[in-house]
Amino acid sequence: MLAEVLGCFAGRFGRVEPRRAAGQFVTGLLADIEVKTCWQLAEQAGHSRPDAMQRLLYRAVWDADAVRNDLRQLITSRFGGPDAVLVVDDTGDLKKGVHTVGVQRQYTGTAGRVENSQVGVFLGYAGVDGHTLIDRRVYLPVSWTEDRDRCQAAGVPDEIEFATKPELAAEMITAALAAGVPAGWATADEAYGNSATFRAGLRDHEIGYVLAVSRSHLVPLDGGKTRVRVDWIAADLPDSAWQRRSAGAGSKGPRLYDWAWLDDVCTDADPDDGGRHSLLIRRNTSTGELAFYRCWTPRPATLAQLVRVAGIRWTIEEAFQAAKGQVGLDQHQVRRWDSWHRFTTLALAALAVLAICAADATHDEPSDTGLIKLTVNEVRRLTNACIIRPIIDLAHRLHWSGWRRRHQARARRAHYTRRLNLELQP
Question: Which residues form the Transposase IS701-like DDE domain (predicted)?
């Protein structure tokens, strides 16, 4: 599978050197090494210096979006189907300094608070057999897009303008559907569900959606004559309005919630779109906590279908956890626009290897083995035990120890010299 994933985009490299480096890069992301920066990946690949890996992310000639397209096609050919779900969410990486593309003090769910961070918006794809990430966008705040000198220093193309996270998500969904990605549904959290423009874009594509909205979200009732908070609607529901259903299998069994479905409400400004608008409310069976979803389908749907899509939204959280914990999605040490997209694309390739292997193993294993399904974490462990052999040559390890210490000594002298020169200036 590693060879198949690497082979699907091998033709995007005009020279053998970057093609070989890309294969070693993805293999290194799968390897059992502590940190996955260019230095560590080069050492894992047996290089004497990190130059080839750094050149791959910075100067080498290849199109990361074209590689993304090839990966997307491979993934959707494995997991694709008419009821597949496109899942949108964003994730942040904590950063120091101000030069990394897109970094500023902003809220990130990674920390659960405002921190100096870089945020990326991602598109996940969930089919019957498996799920993984298929696209990515780096979020550029207004503080960046209004400072063209700063953008130029980070390599941001001149045509890139400010776009909200829902707009970036809409771009990825539009590109996926235009490329023929089979999907019948979309889902996202309330940061995207609260956007009327994002919802309208999905209806234009005639793709059904189950989008989380905030408890203070206003929905139109009575043909749009009145607008009511969704939590007020939930407070007036009788006990008979709730049905207990599973949102999918969890690690401890079915994820059971109580659901209330208000059909033919929440009609937006275009009531003649030919679809069916509804409001879905989820209640935690233990705590009573409520969650709310704006829903639309181009044709009649059942409660079971909407509940399934609402439950699939958590697959992107699982994908983020696997991408960061298993293939180092958040361990890049790059500052520039192209380098971020290149590193992230290769990380998605490594994640695809794990996701497809886990899905294929589920098909191949007998149904009654007494074992849980093979997870992406276990696939990576087995990959390292059986395929990726660590280099244990003592001379190679000592060479890299000396190289790191020598490089760090030069950097330290440069920093000290710069600091002293600044202090000596009148």
Answer: 8-219
